Amino acid sequence: MQLGMIGLGKMGLNMATRLLRGGHEIVAYDLNETAIQQAEAEGGTGARTLQEIVNKLDVPRAVWVMVPSGDPTEQIINQLAGLLQPGDIVIDGGNSNYKDSLRRAEALKAHEIHFVDVGTSGGIWGLEEGYSMMVGGLTESVAHIRPALETLAPAPDRGWGHVGPVGAGHFVKMVHNGIEYGIMEAYAEGFELMRAKTEMQLDMHQIAEIWRFGSVIRSWLLDLTSNALAENPSLEGIAAYVPDSGEGRWTVVESIDLGVAIPVITLALQERFHSREDQPFSDRLLAAMRNQFGGHAIKKVGD
User: What are 85-117's pLDDT values in tens digits?
Assistant: First the structure.
């Protein structure tokens, strides 16, 4: 099928490349001229403006937006609303908040433009391994782009699915990322505990390799953990600073709204916050309180 691709960052370019290798026709646009040229080198057709990408696509058009969530996605979709025609489809494959997706779908509906939200997982490995995709939207819209989804997925019948109406794709992806936070935190804490048992001289990479095969906790995240420990066993040069993309926060907020307890995911998010603090005030206050009630010694900065 023919598909427009807006946003040729690492993931967007990899997705365009996988589609091109699968026999699809891609019209690619990005603010970065070099990225457009890379897509052209893979066999895609370049576009230098949004109007040009619309002009080069056959009707009904399908345009996949793969730009950072928030304002960049908002601006692109607003501009497309004024350029596309009734019956065209806008696909948001980024990490948008599902509530934004619901709102954007309603805005596009006023122009008789369809909206599909695709929660996409796979990262830098997706080009070769395929992408896991959670798709929300009208049945007929999803059916129209099905050939592209089947090519992007690990297999036509695996790793992707139409999970529900508009918003459902990004909602499921939000929960997916919350679960990811919890799994990552559990692995990190377990390896930290084993590393602290210094008298046993445990080899973290060896243990990760053992767990990768046959263990009930084997996973792709463990595979990647093993890779990281093989490359840098002591994690030298890596700061204890863990960002968050925002989806973990949205997951926790949703749990509060629904009254559903998700303590592991919530704590994993809080640990990420804590990792970004230098000499946290809360910990310093704990030390001060112990000194106040029990006269316990305080360790000074630099000691």
Answer: 999 999 999 999 999 999 999 999 999 999 999
Distance CA 165, CA 117 (A): 9
Give the integer Cα–Cα distance in Å for 53 and 46. 8
218 neighbors 211 (Cβ within 8 angstroms):
yes
Retrieve residue 226's tokens.
């093993």
Residues classed as catalytic: 173, 180
Residue among 6, 95, 112, 105 nearest 51 (CA): 6
CA atoms within 13 A on the CB side of 79: 15
Contacting residues for 4 by C-beta, under 8 A, at least 6 apart: 26, 27, 28, 29, 47, 53, 54, 56, 57, 61, 62, 63, 64
DSSP 158: B
The C-alpha angle 261, 262, 263, rounded to 5 degrees, equals 100
Cis peptide before 147 (omega within 30 of 0): no
Tokens linked to 264 = 């592991």
Which tens digit of pLDDT belongs to each residue from 106-152? Answer: 999 999 999 999 999 998 899 999 999 999 999 999 999 999 999 99
H/E element, 6? strand 2-6
Question: Quick one: pLDDT at residue 187?
Answer: 97
- Other Cβ atoms less than 10 A from the Cβ of 99: the count is 14
Contact in structure between 121 and 175 (CB atoms under 8 Å): no
Length of the chain: 303
- Inter-CA distances, 271 with 63, 228, 243, Å: 38, 20, 10
Question: What does the block give as tokens for 291?
Answer: 């000194």
